[in-house]
Amino acid sequence: MDRIFYRTDSVDPVSNSPIYIFDTSYLPSTDVISYDAFIPTLISLLPQERYVLVMFSCGLNKISWVWGIKFLKAFLAENNNVENVVKIISVHDSWFIKSITDILTNYNFTKKNIASLNRLFDSFVINSNQPDDSPSDDFNKNTIIRCNSLSQLSNYVDIRRLKISLNVYKHDLEVENDIQLSIRFIPLLNPYTRIDRSSHPLFFHHFYQVFNIINANGEKVELLFHKPGNKANTEIFYNCVNRNQLIWINDWNLFCISTAFKKFLHNLPYPMVPLDSIELPIKDDFNYTFTTFSKIIAAHEYNEETTNYSNVLIQLCRLCHGLINANQVTKHTSTSLAKCMSHCLSHQLVSNSSKDVIIVVTRFLRNVLEFWPQISTAYKNYPSIEDIINGKVCPIDKPDDSYDLSYDVTLEEDDENDKKFNSIEILATNRQSIAGSEGPVDKLITPRTSPRRINLPATPSSLSPHKPRSPVRSPKREKLYSPNKPAKSVNFSMRVANKLADVSNIGLQFPPQKYKFSANARKEIDSTPAFLQDTEVVVKKPVIRGRKVGELAKLFEERSQALELLKGM
């Protein structure tokens, strides 16, 4: 439930009320949970204070609209539920949400008009000079705002302080190509960015949190840094970090995180391994490799703008050496990792023009990783990633909980539409509400599976009227042994085949591209009986009428049930 309805750390700039988020993309399927019990559970979570609700309605297409009517009826049953809602901001709404919000608006306005009339009549009572302590109508007036995209939502609240799920970002890509915030902000990664805690604490925090996740889980997957993550998901994650957005880090898998990390390294103001620092001709011995690496570390420490580049480069070499040691799982060697990291560390583009340059950088990085057990002895005093995260080097302040690892990080690439839910966790307060209690209660199912979606059986191949013919060697056998012939024709064809076996036509048995038939042969072939020439029976595709009628009956039943609920309201 903490992903469906939860409170944020942000407040509404107008009313100063706390903001709650209702993320419908995480609503479970009706196949795994009973909504008759889920709706009261959701109603019980509503706050008893005045609040602003931001509803992402992109996931309502997987449940029936009847449940929305039932939720609205249960919501309006308590007067405090409507009075506590200061504002509703609906994002990515559909026709159903627009209809529900119109009903809610009309209901609330009608109720307040009646209350105003009652106060007006009470004011004419003699000796009625009691002050009206109730808030003004303008303050109580509920506002429903519809936003088609996250860019429009930024006009009302600062979306950077809202923890928005990856599902919402991916749905927003169908509406707009890029999120344009209404407020101006400085990207965390810009030409003046440093990996320094004092001057750029936000970027330092995000950079090392991502670095720590890769370091802790990199040895559990294959071909890290080589296998790219989903392009859209990786771009979303990179943009979220770049604008200091609160995120659910568990929505992204390790490949998306590592791909975004390589993009961070590539877009830094200065390269980690400058090409000018590698002297040519390059040598593959330890002395040359250690001397060149020491010059790179010294150059970074001497330059004030790249002071901490040396720490990052040493920590990155430790990470890569660990991946090589676990090559039974990671499938990495020093050469493969050098090829993966050469572009982002040297800031060279992937193109044919930089091919020769990349070969030099790759060869140097390969030598560094191969000689790292000897090189690392000179850099034992440099802090590790864990030391920086735990604050052993310098005490740090935790800006947010975006990198809360209470859930395990997704290691492998998941299906785009596969989001699993546990009905026990959702209905922890009511264990009897799981649909189909005779089955296992911990059944997992994707919420995007529609209960109306029915997999129709495929049409049997024998009933298909357009079945393609398979290639055969002899045109005579093509007619005689056709799979669409009736049984009696097959028996006759066997007798004809025995008869043709005595004919000396061996000269025609060549590969298909060299067939040459005379006119007499064609005439002999065409002289087959008429019942063998036109024996294909055209069978129409069967229509499963019972299933269609069942779906229509279900829709009619839902419609009647919803109308009865509306009449009762």
UniProtKB/TrEMBL annotation:
Pfam family, one: CRAL_TRIO_2
UniProt record, GO biological process: signal transduction
Domain Rho-GAP: residue ranges: 186-372
Disordered: annotated segments: 437-485
Gene3D superfamilies (UniProt xref): Rho GTPase activation protein
InterPro entries documented for this protein: CRAL-TRIO_dom (IPR001251), Rho_GTPase_activation_prot (IPR008936), RhoGAP_dom (IPR000198)
Annotated protein name in UniProt: Rho-GAP domain-containing protein
